[in-house]
Write a structure and sequence with these properties.
single chain; alpha/beta; globular
């Protein structure tokens, strides 16, 4: 089974323009993500819409494709990247893994876990979740939560606190239920990726600003895999400053 890791990397960002090219030690953020992904996968490509990012990836010897500026999501960019990369290389990929371009320290094991989930032929889409360990995160709308069924498939994603604990004070909710946050690492079977990128935006997706709800509304199954690793994403200059202040091995 051939698996393609795609790292969407845009220049434009409302909170941190140009962040794929910020230096973290001796390497840019996009190079760090790329090298981490290569520890898990044989095929990795950066999908960008910017010549500066394209040149950077070529410069460190990475695979990169130029994609449209008009994509609404990383999932859409992954679909175009798959088509271009298959045409350029002559390979056919059964699975695509969407790797966030702003997580320079992503654990290779997380990518491997997503890849392994597709050994089960019933897996259409898979993603990672992590147990919430801080009570305040349960009520943080910037942290999407997820609830699952007994088959470890997602039922719903929300920025609200789900589930609501009836007949209990909110300060006690954290101790009465195990809450999970959703981490933005996805795997898709290639045929499923093509189908979901042709769907119109759905009401729940628009309400929550979470595209995975579109897939659920249209009957697709999302397998959830629990990880213990904490993802470190860099969304703002302040996030980067914290990383640099804390120090790390280059």
């Amino acid at each position: 089974m051939k698996i393609l890791g795609v790292i969407p990397a845009r220049w434009a960002s409302s909170r941190f323009p140009g962040k794929p090219l910020v230096k973290i030690g001796s390497k840019t953020m996009i190079e760090r993500v790329y090298l981490q992904a290569l520890k898990s996968l044989d095929y990795v490509v950066v999908a960008t819409d910017d010549e500066r990012i394209f040149k950077e990836v070529k410069g460190f010897g990475g695979q990169v494709v130029m994609t449209s500026e008009n994509h609404q999501s990383g999932t859409d960019r992954c679909m175009e990247a798959l088509d271009i990369f298959e045409q350029e290389t002559g390979n056919k990929f059964e699975v695509v893994i969407n790797i966030q371009g702003d997580e320079p320290f992503i654990q290779p094991q997380q990518i491997k876990d997503i890849a392994v989930s597709f050994k089960d032929e019933t897996t259409e889409i898979s993603t990672l979740i992590k147990k919430i360990t801080e009570p305040e995160v349960v009520f943080d709308p910037s942290c999407p939560k997820v609830i699952m069924n007994t088959n470890n498939e997602a039922i719903y994603f929300s920025r609200s606190t789900i589930p609501y604990i009836q007949n209990a004070d909110k300060k006690d909710w954290f101790n009465k239920f195990t809450y999970y946050e959703h981490l933005g690492l996805y795997g898709y079977r290639s045929d499923i990726l093509r189908k979901i990128t042709q769907l119109a935006p759905s009401s729940l997706e628009i309400a929550e600003s979470l595209e995975q709800n579109r897939w659920l509304e249209n009957g697709f199954k999302i397998r959830v895999l629990e990880t213990e690793y904490e993802n470190i994403s860099i969304d703002t200059q302040e996030d980067l400053d914290k990383i640099l202040e804390r120090g790390f091995e280059d």
